[in-house]
Design brief:
The protein has 19 helices and 11 strands. The chain has about 575 residues and is α/β, with parallel strands linked by helices.
């Protein structure tokens, strides 16, 4: 899937582990009884045993069975993760029995005889020495205790090797052969002896899903009792076939998920590149000028797509344009509309060129106005902040929209359509619409935001300390004083020396600490789509409340049950 090269790394020393064939029992009860008998026998011979289970419930069930038989053992699962280091360190000691789930014990080295460093640390802690609270005493006693533990571990390791090394026992086959190999790989590391075996039953999940009925019929025809296992190549081939089918299914799932993720990855690349350019301030003026051109062109093309001049609704076009910027031309003068109803033959191209020229001139006046209020170069700072704010909000809304689209795109298969192709097509259309909305909203903000120069903060007097809390309280309680401007001669001198920086500016809606909320599509209670709105405060509170899917489900559960009041029907 990922087109990456893989190089197998050979073992450091030849592997001498013995991998025994699987034993298949008719019932789970008979399987676990055989597991307990096998473990008890090896425990009495001094051979360490590592038992792999598929769930916490199975590990606890085996723990109860070992307790009944009087076998000392350790359980390594999610409930005892704090003792994981100690349990793994002692799992290779003579006669040790460790029951571990899939989530615990994998990827760790079970040292025959035990891990001397961890065992020495545990011994010192039992004496009341700790590397944090008593570092000097701990350091002084460390070497002697470590040498003593190493001697004990070496003698115990020789005893374990004579007993056959670590014995890995699996109580169930996993869907992936890789997980089975990881469990087997705990034994026979670095050339040490070892042994492994899997105990299976017809009640296991993998056997129930694939080929379990055929094996059960064979055992029934042979009239075998429950406690007599089957060990045959045919059974091993059936299990391998079942695992291959599951792995192929998982492969197709990952492959399909990657195709869906590629759609979002391409969109994410475009947005992040655009955001990086905004952060670096590259050609901000050119980007905004292009946005103005695209927005005005889209407005004009939409109004003049059909018919002639007399068919165009220019009044509606001018009303829409006035929401973006102060239009300086009158459409009546442009088309020559008079009382007798005669109009000039104005083409769509001429109308577009006139409005584009007017919009760019209006933006030049807006830039001069902002620079006059907040200082030279303030317009570039305002452009960067506006574009970042709008881009981030639009992208978050788009992510919600794409999640909503992905949730139900699989139903397109019922209409004989490829869900992936439909997802790519509609995702592309939604992304294009998001970019158009980004341009339109950014242009509207840049023309209509109320901007003022921020007042400089006075330095505290000598001997007076100002905390952040008191400063914030003072700033919120008292109105900000007007910023004193330097004398013309001083300002001219500073500009000549190049020491004047653009004054900090404040824009209402960007600096009031209350960002705008999100608007996105979501499912209604009746199954239809509805427009969902999340307030700014709610968006901030829910920012760390899990994934977008979890936040959407939480919002859906909050609105569930809220119905409109019923109205009485007139009879």
């Amino acid at each position: 899937i990922y087109n990456l090269g893989v190089i197998p790394i050979p073992t450091n020393r030849p592997m001498v582990r013995v991998d025994n064939g699987d034993l298949i029992y008719k019932t789970e009860e008979a399987k676990f009884d055989a597991v307990v008998d096998d473990v008890v026998e090896r425990h009495q011979n001094g051979q360490p045993v590592l038992i792999g289970t598929t769930s916490v419930e199975r590990s606890e069930y085996l723990s109860k069975q070992f307790t009944k038989r009087g076998v000392a053992h350790n359980v390594l699962n999610a409930k005892f993760h704090e003792q994981e280091a100690q349990i793994i360190a002692e799992a290779g000691r003579s006669g040790a029995v460790t029951v571990a789930t899939n989530m615990a014990g994998r990827g760790t080295d079970v040292v025959l005889g035990g891990n001397p460093d961890i065992i020495a640390d545990i011994a010192l802690r039992k004496q009341g020495l700790d590397p944090v609270h008593t570092p000097e005493e701990y350091e002084a006693a460390w070497d002697d205790v470590l040498d003593q533990v190493k001697a004990e571990v070496k003698a115990d390791a020789d005893k374990v090797r004579e007993a056959g090394g670590l014995y890995v026992l699996g109580t169930e086959r996993h869907e992936s052969r890789r997980i089975d190999n990881q469990l087997r790989g705990r034994s026979g590391r670095q050339g040490d002896p070892g042994e492994s075996r899997f105990y299976l039953s017809l009640g296991d999940e993998l056997m129930r899903r694939f080929n379990g009925a055929a094996l059960e019929s064979i055992m029934t025809r042979l009239n075998l009792p429950d406690d007599v296992p089957i060990e045959a190549k045919m059974v091993s081939k059936a299990i391998k076939s079942a695992q291959t089918q599951v792995e192929q299914q998982n492969f197709e799932i990952r492959k399909n998920v990657l195709k869906y993720d590629e759609v979002m990855n391409q969109q994410r690349t475009v947005i992040y590149n655009e955001r990086r350019q905004i952060l670096e301030g590259k050609d901000m003026e050119g980007q905004v000028e292009k946005m103005i051109t695209d927005v005005v062109t889209a407005y004009v093309d939409g109004a003049t797509a059909e018919g002639y001049v007399e068919d165009w609704d220019l009044e509606q076009l001018w009303t829409a344009l006035r929401t973006l910027y102060p239009v300086g031309v009158d459409y009546k003068e442009l088309v020559g509309d008079s009382d007798d109803g005669e109009t000039n033959d104005v083409t769509a191209d001429e109308l577009r060129e006139t409005l584009l020229k007017d919009a760019h001139e209006a933006y030049a006046r807006r830039e001069a106005e902002i620079d006059g209020v907040a200082g030279e170069g303030s317009m570039r700072e305002l452009e960067r902040r506006v574009l970042l704010s709008v881009l981030d909000r639009k992208w978050r809304e788009h992510l919600y929209e794409m999640d909503y689209l992905k949730e139900g795109i699989g139903l397109r298969a019922m209409a004989q359509r490829d869900p992936l192709v439909e997802y790519q097509r509609e995702g592309f259309d939604m992304f294009g619409g998001m970019l158009e909305g980004l341009k339109e909203e950014s242009v509207g903000f840049l023309f209509n935001l109320q901007v003022e120069a921020a007042a400089p903060q006075a330095a505290p007097a000598a001997g007076v300390s100002v905390t952040a809390a008191s400063a914030a309280a003072t700033a919120s309680a008292a109105p900000a004083p007007a910023a004193p401007r330097p004398l013309p001669t001083q300002e001219a001198a500073q500009q000549a020396q190049g020491t004047v920086a653009p004054s900090a500016l404040r824009a209402k809606g960007l600096d009031d600490g209350e960002p705008r909320g999100l608007t996105y599509s979501g499912p209604a209670e009746n199954g239809n789509a509805q427009l969902s709105r999340r307030g700014a405060a709610e968006s901030d509170d829910a920012a760390d409340a899990g994934t977008r899917r979890q936040r959407r489900e939480a919002a859906r559960s909050q609105t569930k049950g809220k119905k409109a009041p019923r109205t009485k029907r007139k009879r």
